Amino acid sequence: xxxxxxxxxxxxWPHTLLGWPLTRYLLTRSPQLVALCLLCLLTxxxxxxxxxxxxxxxxxxGGERHEGVSPSLVMDTSEGRIVxxxxxxxxxxxxxxLADLAVGSVAESNPTAxxxxxxxxxxxxxxxxxxTAERPLSEPLEFPKEVDAVALGLDQQRISSIQEAGVVxxxxxxxxxxxxxxxxxxxxxxRQWLDQWRTSDSPEFLIGVxxxxxxxxxxxxxxxxxxxxxxxxxxxxxxxxSLLTSSPRLNIALVDLPRRNGQWVAVGSVxxxxxxxxxxSFRPLVATKLQPFLPRSPVRIESVVFxxxxx
Length: 311
Hints:
By secondary structure, the chain is an alpha+beta fold. Helices cover 33% and strands 19% of the residues. It has 3 domains: 2-55, no CATH class; 69-148 and 224-310, Cyclophilin-like (Cyclophilin); 162-209, no CATH class.
């Protein structure tokens, strides 16, 4: 009987002649059950609205996506073309922000230029990555990060040895402690771990801790419901501006970079011109202290255009 009542309420029986007397009866006999059903209705409505919003994208018409049509950034450089297929499921708000940057006006000297027009690849690590420069603006552009740690499996990646625990402690946790933060600004879990280290003088307590817990302890925050992708060869990410924000600098990974998973936002992948990106990474360098991978003659980006491309 209870299952029948719940199902009836969820299917809209309160709006029928039979359902209203039943609902009024339940309000007097079992208000908790009615409250539960109303909560289910509300949750169902919110989930439905979320799905409906997610079904419309940058290349959708009439609220419907078209199979085989992908939002893309077409980048024409002084050495050739690179096409980036954007992934709206991985980072929907960030991808829309990038599309706006590509077509928006940010240069006073050229009102029709997009953000990336005229910039260069000013960071080129051979067979590792290439990255666009950042336009000098009065206020730097930043955008909140969109990353789902669970989608990346970071909740399942756990420290399995005392050697690995020692590396995390030395290279990540201690560095975070010395990053100019006062003790009260540290994450409570970080303070707890540092106290354990002082007491035991061993990083063994970190064995079994997940990569998600470590990153959150360092200050990263995550969302649920995104199709975040790992950073592999050809993945396009945004260089972080802070623990919680991304800069507009586009980074093309030329090898797998798993250490960046959960820290850099992946927005898509190169579907044309990856070999060109490899060649760009081998430009002769003029290393400086601030820019150790600055090319002597950077490749210029002539234009970046947003397009919906049929594949």
